[in-house]
Amino acid sequence: MRQKQQIRDLLECVWPAALTVAAQPLRSRTWAATLTVILGRDGGDLARTRRLGLDRLQAQVDREIGRWGGQRVCRRIVTRLYTALTDTAGVLAHRRGALERVDLVLDDWHDTRRKLADVEARMLTVLDELGLTDLVTSIPGLSALGAAAILAQTGDLTRFTSARAVVKHAGPAPREKLSGTFTGRTKLTGQGRPGLRLAAWRAVWGAQANNPVYAARYRHLTTREHNRLTATQAQTVIAAAILRQLYAVVVTGRAWDPVIATHGTRSRHQAAA
After folding, report:
1. What does the domain layout of the chain look like in residue ranges?
2. What's the predicted TM-score (pTM) here?
């Protein structure tokens, strides 16, 4: 996100200690709430905020954390940020002005988070109204929001003639770079819908970690002796599988079946016979 990078760049220049108080500060609601209190209260005058005292600072962060979507404050992060108020590393001559800029970017970041949460809530509402939430979440590792993001790019899946057509619409097909005896790196064609490819790619991470079928498929593709794939190539295969199987559950109205996902319908019918 652009605002997060701006905040990081500014703090690295004038107050780098603020970025060392947590392992991933820009993902911490407590860190964002504390920084909002520090910069909004005294306009970047860290010495004046220091005189406020740790207890009063924590009380104000307790009131601010809800605005950032948090429920409990991490006292350790508040304490470390309070201690960092006296740190003199950074370009001190420009600290006040840069911190005022950080305060403005924090407001933009909060507004972006609010709008994103609103859009995500409306996407889930539409998914419920279509009666698809239970179907799409029957695929282990695929969240309702991840499926909604994919469906927002595909539209009504019944308009496609097959699952293969959905994958083709996304365009995650590899393309070899050949010229005479020269063979270059194999890359994606770049054809298809970029937003759909991105949504499917993001769905891979949760599915690969929580879906035993996809996890086994990934291990097979990256460890087999013949035509072994790289990690990225194998994840592209998983992304295509998610699109095919999402098409199947939505169009047929049947929950995801790990047997079909592993062997296909033909092998299942043979086993039943």
Report:
1. 2-120, 130-272
2. 0.75
